[in-house]
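Entry type: protein chain
Record version: 2
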Amino acid sequence: LGRMIGLVVRPRVIELFSGQTDRFNAVALLDDGQESRLTRDVEFVSSNAGVAQINASRGQVTGQTKGRATVSVVHRLTGMSSTQFSGDATVEVRGRVERLAVDPARAYYVLGTQPRLRARATLDDGSSDSLRSDLVWTSSDPAIASVGNESPNKGVLTPNQVGRVTISAVEPVSGVTTTQSGGDGTAIIVDGLQSLTVRESEGNDELRTGDVVRLRAFGSFPNPSPDGEEPGPTVDVEMSGVVEFTSSNPAVIRVENGRALAVGLGEATVSARDPRTGILSSQSGGDA
């Protein structure tokens, strides 16, 4: 692989709450410009074990109390240290989880998609943080929608049929749950796309050359369970990550990765297509 000429800790920053665990890696910098992860003959050190405790050989770090600590690594065979190369990392421990809430509290999901869920934790210092993979998820009715708890589908919602379920989560280190916190979420599964509408994120249909705006697409679906919050027969559900966007004139507006790039003078129409049903925004006058 080449000769080791430097040593760094990756990632450079990890944020934890008390009791949460993550992992650092030791990375060798080689004389050919490449990098290689080191899995043996290394020793990790925390500058403050009372804030962040680290496993010396594996790099696994656990937040203890609120504060900041520096993590360095030493290669035993050469004596080379990450400190020598400004390659140390930082651990920010933010406090204990006191409340947990599914975010958003109520959401519509399209049958056939697999969105990743998240929850917002409120910490003892009053701050909040978004959590995904550090939770154990539960659906009130897996026949309607289930949530994975094993990698790589941990936190991924799988809609199985039209209906409504309650989504709850527990943070396993603290034991805090969304149910205890009054933060359970409602997931409503919809199907039967009726029409598509394209919008651009800033609501402005006049751009200067060089401007870039994010495109958004919304689908109209039958409402499977109207209630006081959504009494109407149909609901609009965002489908920006599902549809295919196209421009009628790429010399004026070029579409890339869900964004519209203004590259020339003139006018262009941006439309969307749902690949599962083939429905176009142009069929219902929903182009932008």
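Comment: The first strand starts at residue 4 and ends at 10.
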